[in-house]
Amino acid sequence: MLKLFEYNWQVRNDWFDWCETVSEEELLKRRTGGIGSILYTLYHIVTVEYAWLCGDLQGRELNIPSFEDCASVQGLRDYSARSRAEIAPFVYAWNGSLEDHVMFDTNQDGEQESFRFGEVMRHVIAHEIHHIGQLSIWSREIGKKPVSANLIYRGLFDFKE
Question: What is the pLDDT of residue 33?
Fold first, then answer.
């Protein structure tokens, strides 16, 4: 699971680099499908990861900026880096004993829900991968090559001798 978080973080950074090659107008343009613009999608990815892992699983106080407060490539890079700094110790300390811990949440309808920590961790991984797919589609729509989603060749499983 750790390698998939590292994969998502690498791909996210690659998307930030990709964004540097696109006009701000294109990055903020409302798009069909997905949840809005390219930049808002990146903001959403960071916010969901941060909220689940720091807030819901660790019970920590959250410091989530509004989209408007970080609606630039550099603003999102900075927000992502701050969030990752808070998330990474939990991700790197993950072990099987946490798998079946239960968190409780209240949904939008005011109903109590419970989720296993392992389920939430995997949801966060899949959530980012899902939205990265949307970014790839939008990239092609504006005539740009998308970031590679290939897990291979990212150095995540290099042999250490």
Answer: 86
